[in-house]
Amino acid sequence: MSENAADTITRAALTWPGVHGTHGSRGEWSLRVGRREIGHLHGDRVAHIGFPRSIGQRLRAEGRIEPHPVFPDNPGWGARPLRDDADVADVIALLRMNYDRAT
């Protein structure tokens, strides 16, 4: 990857109408539509994304998300490691799914 994966993802999401980013106390970017969070990122390590339970379970079964590192038993929360450009593209698609639900 030629640049920070979180920067690539954030820049893409901020082009969607109404999306804004806030920088959290632990260095993560939270991407929001109004007050609703569509996901947040921790540098190049991992992106945490929330979904309705049924969508989260399906995405886990498909191998598109892994358990959330802090809440691994919550089927609606998941994380995606950012290892390469394909992971970055998938996170953007997953965030877009959350954005479409939020708007």
Number of domains: 1
The tally of beta strands, per DSSP, is: 6
Shape: globular
| SS content category | alpha+beta
User: In the CATH classification, which architecture applies?
Assistant: Alpha-Beta Complex
Low-confidence stretches: none
Order of adjacent strands in the largest pleated sheet: 1-2-3-4-6-5
Give the count of helical stretches: 3
Radius of gyration: 12 Å
Distance between the ends: 30 Å
The helix fraction, in percent, is: 25-40%
Provide the residue-averaged pLDDT: 88
Describe the protein:
By secondary structure, the protein is an alpha+beta fold. It has one domain (5-102): Aspartate Aminotransferase, domain 1. It is 35% helix and 28% strand. Strands 1-2-3-4-6-5 form a six-stranded antiparallel β-sheet, with helices on one face. The longest helix has 18 residues, at 85-102. The protein is globular.
Which key features would you list for this structure?
103 residues; alpha+beta; Aspartate Aminotransferase, domain 1; 3 helices; 6 strands
In short:
By secondary structure, this protein is an alpha+beta fold. 35% of the residues lie in helices and 28% in strands. It has one domain: Aspartate Aminotransferase, domain 1.
Architecture blueprint of SSEs:
Blueprint: H1 5-13, E1 19-23, E2 29-33, E3 36-42, E4 46-50, H2 53-61, E5 66-67, E6 77-81, H3 85-102
